[in-house]
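Hey team,

Filing this mostly as a record. A colleague (T.K.) asked me to run one chain through the structure pipeline before their review meeting, and I want the input and output archived in the tracker in case anyone asks later how it was produced. No errors, nothing strange. Just documentation.

Input sequence:
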Amino acid sequence: MFQTEFEFTLPLGYADEEGVLNRSGVMRLATAADEIMPLKDPRVQANEAYLIIILLSRVITKLGSVAQINPKVIESLYTADLSYLHEFYNRINRSGNARIDAICPKCESAFALEMSRSGESLATL
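Output structure:
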């Protein structure tokens, strides 16, 4: 099965309005719209560095008990957590590697098949 959501744990955590520390969350794979639509946002047009704030607010689907993930939540993260999420985003969206569960047609054994980017070997990643 193709995995589209990935769990993460923030190094420091987000303290919500009640002071609850939220560290665990879920990020989904980005769509083309997730990467294109923020470019129209005036905050991104005024400051390109804001792109990651909008992008993360679109792809993080869960962060502890936080009801809604929006740019204000992402802006309130500690720098270490923002950096961690940026790297996590790149790892799940840009690695080019996919894991596919497969079954051998001869012996019917189940195994995981690692797929790499077209034209590249795992040695070059």
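Quick notes for T.K.: Strands lie at 5-15, 21-28, 60-63, 98-103, 110-115. The two ends are 23 Å apart (CA to CA).
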